[in-house]
């Protein structure tokens, strides 16, 4: 590794360390809150079994929640210890991404562009989230790098980690198998028989876990918990079409359109006679397969999709975009302008705020961090005005504040009312939740009185009062 490469990697690690210290007290957000709840069960029950009971279980394998619970046992049950785990995973993911960048960039692409890659909005947002997506990304990148190195041992670790982190890991494992076949077919790699050991180890380990879970809970993969199982049902043709639009939207939003749209043009030019170099082909193959398998695995089903699900697709697309940009004979000024526009698009991606009636993947940009200051101010206002929490309806996860903070710091005292606009005296609404129905939002805006509202760069938290 050259001195310049070490400096760039050090800059990235320093940023992650500073991020850890600045966000030490930021609690779990959205889906990460349920991970804290499950990790708390393992922690409280001293790992008496490796899977949580069905009433808590969404079906996802337990690697992430077990890791959180272990860190809590070692360092204490607090947000900062879970964020310490996330810091290590973040560093691993960045390092694997750096290795992939080095292996697949053409010589004309400057190593400095790795810093542009690292500010992709959803990637940088996920480095702040206590969900399991960065761990899944780490193993995915390790898997691609292991294929390019033909390292059966690292590939076995990657496949096993992928399958034990998230159910989407099944899709990712399928993509890596197909990528391996394609790499051999197109001469990117030669077949080494010891790579079969990787598949055997991962499959045996995962099947052993499924057998264990079946013995403990009586089910595998598809949870019997109705709160989660409904997300894995097939959907109607109309909803599948809507999901297709959402799939494309998740790729293009937060500024990523400046990468995807030119990349499609570049690929069409390649088809008209320009050969794709070996390194770009090593990116294009998994990118196409990820898009294809994810589309088939997500669009026909009822599970809501988020931009974080497609994080690996966006990172591979950016890498391929860099190669494509420097393959064509553009002037140096034009290339710098394109890179500058890309940087600007990524930075301003964190400012994308949709109207409240449009669902948004809040954990896919840093915009969600602005909510916590608003929440603190609003809770202070409610207490100051002596408004009973039991009179306030909300879809915000206020009942789960203690779980999100990993300990009982008084958050459990905020017992808000169930949602019923016919009964609630007050309603607490923010655009960072996607559960309040459009017609309910319209009623609040047109008929209810605003008691107090706090805003920060498009994120808002509003307390409404029922009209007399």
Give a verbal description of the structure.
With 468 residues, the chain is mostly helical. The protein is 59% helix and 5% strand. It is built from 19 helices and 4 strands. The chain has a 4-stranded mixed beta sheet with strand order 1-2-4-3, with helices on both faces. It starts with a helix and ends with a strand. The mean pLDDT is 90.
What form results from the Cα inertia axes? globular
- Helix/strand order: HHHHHHHHHHHHHHHHHEHEHEE
Stretches with pLDDT under 50, minimum 5 residues: none
> What would you report as the Rg, rounded to the nearest angstrom?
23 Å
Number of strands: 4
Question: Helical region count?
Answer: 19
Main β sheet profile: 4 strands, mixed
Average pLDDT score? 90
- Helix percent reads 55-70%
Structural class: mainly alpha
Report strand %.
under 5%
> Kindly, what is the distance between the CA atoms of the first and last residues, rounded to a whole number of angstroms?
70 Å
Task: Describe the SSE topology.
Elements (H helix, E strand, L loop, with lengths): L2 H20 L8 H14 L18 H13 L3 H26 L8 H6 L2 H6 L6 H17 L2 H14 L2 H18 L9 H23 L8 H4 L7 H16 L4 H15 L6 H21 L12 H17 L4 H17 L22 H14 L7 E3 L6 H4 L21 E5 L7 H10 L1 E8 L2 E7 L3
Parallel strand pairs: 1-2
Antiparallel strand pairs: 2-4, 3-4
């Amino acid at each position: 590794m050259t001195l310049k490469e070490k400096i760039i990697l050090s800059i990235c690690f320093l940023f992650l360390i500073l991020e850890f210290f600045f966000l030490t007290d930021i609690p779990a957000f959205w889906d990460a809150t349920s991970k804290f709840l499950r990790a708390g069960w393992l922690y409280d029950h001293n790992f008496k079994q490796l899977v949580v009971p069905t009433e808590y279980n969404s079906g996802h394998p337990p690697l992430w929640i077990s890791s959180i619970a272990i860190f809590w046992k070692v360092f204490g049950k607090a947000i900062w210890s879970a964020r310490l785990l996330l810091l290590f995973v973040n560093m691993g993911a960045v390092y694997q991404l750096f290795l992939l960048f080095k292996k697949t960039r053409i010589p004309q692409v400057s190593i400095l562009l790795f810093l542009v890659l690292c500010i992709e909005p959803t990637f940088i947002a996920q480095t702040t989230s206590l969900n399991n997506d960065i761990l899944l990304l780490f193993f995915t990148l390790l898997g691609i790098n292991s294929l390019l190195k033909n390292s059966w041992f690292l590939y076995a670790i990657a496949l096993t980690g992928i399958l034990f982190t998230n159910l989407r890991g099944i899709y990712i494992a399928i993509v890596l198998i197909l990528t391996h076949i394609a790499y051999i077919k197109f001469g990117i790699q030669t077949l080494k028989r010891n790579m079969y050991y990787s598949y055997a180890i991962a499959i045996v380990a995962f099947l052993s876990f499924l057998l264990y879970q079946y013995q403990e809970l009586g089910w595998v993969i598809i949870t019997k918990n109705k709160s989660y199982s409904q997300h894995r049902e097939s959907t109607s043709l109309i909803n599948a079409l809507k999901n297709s639009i959402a799939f494309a939207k998740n790729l293009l939003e937060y500024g990523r359109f400046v990468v995807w749209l030119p990349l499609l043009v570049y690929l069409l030019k390649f088809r008209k006679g320009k050969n794709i170099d070996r390194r770009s082909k090593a990116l294009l193959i998994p990118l196409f397969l990820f898009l294809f398998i994810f589309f088939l695995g997500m669009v026909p089903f009822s599970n809501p999709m988020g931009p974080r699900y497609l994080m690996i697709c966006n990172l591979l697309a950016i890498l391929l975009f860099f190669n494509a940009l420097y393959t064509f004979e553009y002037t140096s000024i034009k290339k710098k302008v394109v890179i500058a526009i890309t940087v600007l698009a990524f930075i301003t991606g964190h400012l994308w705020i949709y109207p409240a009636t449009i669902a948004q993947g809040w954990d896919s940009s840093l915009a969600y961090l602005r909510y916590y200051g608003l929440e603190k101010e609003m809770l202070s206002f409610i207490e100051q005005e002596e408004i009973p929490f039991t009179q306030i309806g909300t879809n915000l996860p206020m009942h789960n504040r203690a779980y999100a903070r990993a300990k009982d710091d008084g958050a459990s005292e905020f017992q808000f009312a169930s949602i019923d606009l016919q009964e609630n005296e007050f309603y607490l609404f923010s655009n960072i939740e996607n559960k309040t129905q459009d017609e309910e939002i319209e009623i609040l805006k047109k008929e209810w009185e605003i008691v107090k509202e706090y805003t920060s760069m498009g994120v808002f938290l509003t307390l409404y009062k029922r009209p007399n």
